[in-house]
């Protein structure tokens, strides 16, 4: 059992990087456990590794007594003096146990389990010390295998786990492929994998740009924020500490070479590079590009932005399934509500406000009614059923319900209606929650971003890369409803400017 033990300890310590002292302690503990399994747990056992002989020595200590009552803990004076002639009553006498190599199957199995357990603990500590300073960096590895959707990646000294939720959905790797990932977490005490990777977090995108763009690594260009929908689209905001360095151009690179390298690593994920601005109105104006923005209304207390865009730019501003405005909202950290110029103009009309003040009438329905000539709640209450069914494309039951609700609101708000008919603007109408943008204030013109317009384009691999500044916008400061997520208007078309990598 202990043949060439010293050589084995040295080899394991060298190959695994485990402290030799820890290995020796693990073996001593294993032998101690095995001896107690065979001889009983009440014995006073001491185990030592003899470096000179390269073997484990086991000593049993018993108390010298006149008459033995317990053979496991006591030894007679006569028997003790055979081992040590100078021993006296009451002394603790140590006796070396021979033939410990033959401990039996159960004891040997126990020793094996103890050694394995201690070695795993020691190896976990080595891995933790090795990788704890690399947490938050990009690591390279080879795909080893797959377990329940998780990818096991070999990093050389150990394996790491790339969970299913950390994998970009558009591409699958196969065994043996090389892969780069962000080291998200290094766990010290974990029975499973200690190293957790990710390719979907925002930090992975940021680190890739740091690797590709020297100006970022040098601190001249700074990444101010990032948001992603992994495998589909991402936005990253950049600023420059030096006026003569264009942050967008630095990230795009000559003919788009730098951003294209990042796009390829992310398997075709579109990346919008956005100039950062401390003014939230100008920031959202940049973040929603390539859509044009007519007006931005800022509610600093609620961290909310109402963005007004031309009617033909609405679907572009919102993006496919709300993707563009959703990413912009995450990038800025503010709630963004996008409205067309027509709808915003309607919201300013007092008659329109009476329509959306009616229960169960939302903005989409109010738009249809308003465009068809039903300009207020009074008009709706007196509308013809057949005409209403045709205009709103609803059935008779729904049309009757709307007329009744409108009539009830008209009856409950005579003063508001009277003010409307007199053309007075000071009256306010109580609208259904979430239907009306409230507030006041005078518009303030929004200057174009401070940085000079930048446009750079090129092609690589058949894809066009474009980065450009928007032209102009206007903004007003007003209050708008609170909320946590970006809103997209219903009925927006899935219209975007091709599949190129923008900004």
From TrEMBL:
What Gene3D superfamilies would the database entry show?
A: 3.30.300.20, 5' to 3' exonuclease, C-terminal subdomain, Nucleic acid-binding proteins, NusA, N-terminal domain
Transport recorded as keyword: no
**SMART domains this protein is in?**
KH, S1
Alphabetized SUPFAM superfamilies for the sequence = Nucleic acid-binding proteins, Prokaryotic type KH domain (KH-domain type II), Rad51 N-terminal domain-like, Transcription factor NusA, N-terminal domain
Indicate, by first and last residue, each region the UniProt record lists as having compositional bias (Acidic residues).
444-453, 491-503
What is a single Pfam family found in this protein's UniProt entry?
A: KH_NusA_1st
InterPro entries assigned: DNA_repair_Rad51/TF_NusA_a-hlx (IPR010995), KH_dom (IPR004087), KH_dom-like_a/b (IPR015946), KH_NusA_2nd (IPR058582), KH_sf_prok-type (IPR009019), NA-bd_OB-fold (IPR012340), NusA_N_sf (IPR036555), S1_domain (IPR003029)
**Chain ranges of the S1 motif domain:** 136-200
Q: Which GO terms describe its cellular component?
A: cytosol
One GO term (biological process): DNA-templated transcription termination
Q: Which domain of life is it from?
A: Bacteria
Molecular function terms from GO: DNA-binding transcription factor activity; nucleotide binding; RNA binding
Q: Which UniProt keywords apply?
A: Cytoplasm, RNA-binding, Transcription, Transcription antitermination, Transcription regulation, Transcription termination
Instruction: Tell me where it resides.
Output: Cytoplasm
Region Disordered: start-end pairs: 421-503
Q: Which HAMAP family does the record cross-reference, listed alphabetically?
A: NusA_B
Q: What does the record give as the function of this protein?
A: Participates in both transcription termination and antitermination.
Name the family. Belongs to the NusA family.
Q: Which PANTHER family match?
A: TRANSCRIPTION TERMINATION FACTOR NUSA (PTHR22648), TRANSCRIPTION TERMINATION_ANTITERMINATION PROTEIN NUSA (PTHR22648:SF0)
Assembly and interaction partners: Monomer. Binds directly to the core enzyme of the DNA-dependent RNA polymerase and to nascent RNA.
Q: What is this protein called?
A: Transcription termination/antitermination protein NusA
Q: Which organism is it from?
A: Desulfolithobacter dissulfuricans
